[in-house]
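Chapter summary example.
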Amino acid sequence: MKVLIDTHVLLWWLTDDRRLSRATDALLRDPATEVFVSVASLWEIGIKHANGRLTLSKPPGAFFPTVLAACRFETLPIRAEHAYAAADLPPHHKDPFDRMIIAQARVEGVPVISEDPWFQMYDVGRVG
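The structure predicted for these 128 residues follows.
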């Protein structure tokens, strides 16, 4: 199974946050699950880190390549078709990072793992 994880799910996973459900934790640990992290999530986290709203042990460019490889998570680049799909989404939600993740999931045909209630308003598969 392939899944795309939302930014907060990535952060919960990395910090062993109790808000991450056991089912989601098991799915992310399952070697049969291909876990994708959007470049939009890395960008969002980088902005929060730069603004002092999120602390990482190293700068994002040094932190994430090692951590994602250790978790066996793959990055999903933003391609032109993702940008077009994000622009075509209905304006239910204004967060550009979430809109990109939704668009990527739709274009790639993979479900999203997210606790964000806004995702329910879009035609996107959800897991967890």
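To summarize the output: The domain at 2-127 is CATH 3.40.50.1010 (Rossmann fold).
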